[in-house]
Amino acid sequence: KQKLPLVNHKVLVTAGPTYEAIDPVRFIGNHSSGKMGFAIADELAALGADVTLIAGPTAQQSKQRSIKRIDVTSAADMLRECLANFANADGCIMCAAVADYTPAVVAEQKIKKQDGGLTIELKKTTDILKTLGQQKREGQVLVGFALETNNEEEYAIAKLKNKNLDMIVLNSLNDTGAGFKGDTNKITMIDKALNKTTFALKNKNEVAKDICAKFIQLLKS
Ligand code: C5P
C-alpha cells in the first residue's frame, strides 16, 4: 500500500470567523461559515497529515477523527493559539476570517440603551498571518486567503508579498457561488513565483483537494 503524501507532516489550519466582544452579551463578527477551512483540514488529514485546526465560532464538524481542534473566540485568542502551534508546524493554511478591528475597551456590564446614537471605538487587531510570515523558518510553507471585491489579483499579490507567503488563494466576491457562506467556491491560486492558476466553480471539498495538491508541491519543493 502506498504511503499517504502527508504522513509525518504537521499542518496548522485556521477556520471560521472571530467574535470581538463589545460587552458581555454583544460582539462584532462576520459571515464566515468555516466550511472552506474545515474542508481543507479534512483533506489534509485524509492525506495523512497531523492537523491542528484552530477554529473560531462555527457549527462545522470535522469528518476526520485525527484532527486536533482548538476552539477560539476572538482574534487575540486565535493569535495566541497560532503562535503556540506554529514553531512545530511544517506548514500552515490560514482560512479564518479574522476581525481587523476589535473594541478598544470591552464594557464590563451590558451597555444600556440611551437617547441618541452610540459610538464604539475600535482598535486594530494583530495580523496573525503576517506575524507568522515574519517568524517563518526555511522549509515552512505558509498559505493565506484573500477575499476581494475589486482589483483582486493586484491586492492578492500585495498580500502574498507583504505577509511573506508561499501562496495566496484568491476568492472574488464578483464570482457567483464563491466566497463566504455557500458550499461552492471559485479560486485563483498565486504562488510566490507568481504562477497563477484559475479553477472552475466547485464544491468546497473539491476546492480543498486542489489547494492541498498545490500545498504538497510547495512542501516538497
Ligand atoms: O489582509 P487580509 O485580511 O485580507 O488577509 C487575509 C488573510 O490573512 C487570510 O488568510 C486570513 O486568515 C489572514 N488574516 C490573519 N489575521 C488577521 C487578518 C487576516 O491571519 N488579523
From TrEMBL:
Q: Where does CTP bind?
A: D100, K110, F145, K159, K163
Q: Where is this region: Phosphopantothenate--cysteine ligase?
A: 11-221
Keywords, sorted A to Z: Decarboxylase, Flavoprotein, FMN, Ligase, Lyase, Magnesium, Metal-binding, Multifunctional enzyme
Q: Name one GO molecular function term.
A: phosphopantothenoylcysteine decarboxylase activity
Annotated catalysed reactions:
N-[(R)-4-phosphopantothenoyl]-L-cysteine + H(+) = (R)-4'-phosphopantetheine + CO2; (R)-4'-phosphopantothenate + L-cysteine + CTP = N-[(R)-4-phosphopantothenoyl]-L-cysteine + CMP + diphosphate + H(+)
Provide the E.C. number(s) assigned to this enzyme. Answer: 4.1.1.36, 6.3.2.5
Instruction: Name what cofactor the protein needs.
Output: Mg(2+); FMN
The pathway is: Cofactor biosynthesis; coenzyme A biosynthesis; CoA from (R)-pantothenate: step 3/5; Cofactor biosynthesis; coenzyme A biosynthesis; CoA from (R)-pantothenate: step 2/5
Keyword hit for Amino-acid biosynthesis: no
**Cofactor: binding comment:** Binds 1 FMN per subunit.
Identify the residues that the record assigns to the DNA/pantothenate metabolism flavoprotein C-terminal domain, covering every copy.
8-216
The record's similarity note reads: In the N-terminal section; belongs to the HFCD (homo-oligomeric flavin containing Cys decarboxylase) superfamily. In the C-terminal section; belongs to the PPC synthetase family.
**Purpose of the protein:** Catalyzes two sequential steps in the biosynthesis of coenzyme A. In the first step cysteine is conjugated to 4'-phosphopantothenate to form 4-phosphopantothenoylcysteine. In the second step the latter compound is decarboxylated to form 4'-phosphopantotheine. Catalyzes two steps in the biosynthesis of coenzyme A. In the first step cysteine is conjugated to 4'-phosphopantothenate to form 4-phosphopantothenoylcysteine, in the latter compound is decarboxylated to form 4'-phosphopantotheine.
Q: What is this protein called?
A: Coenzyme A biosynthesis bifunctional protein CoaBC
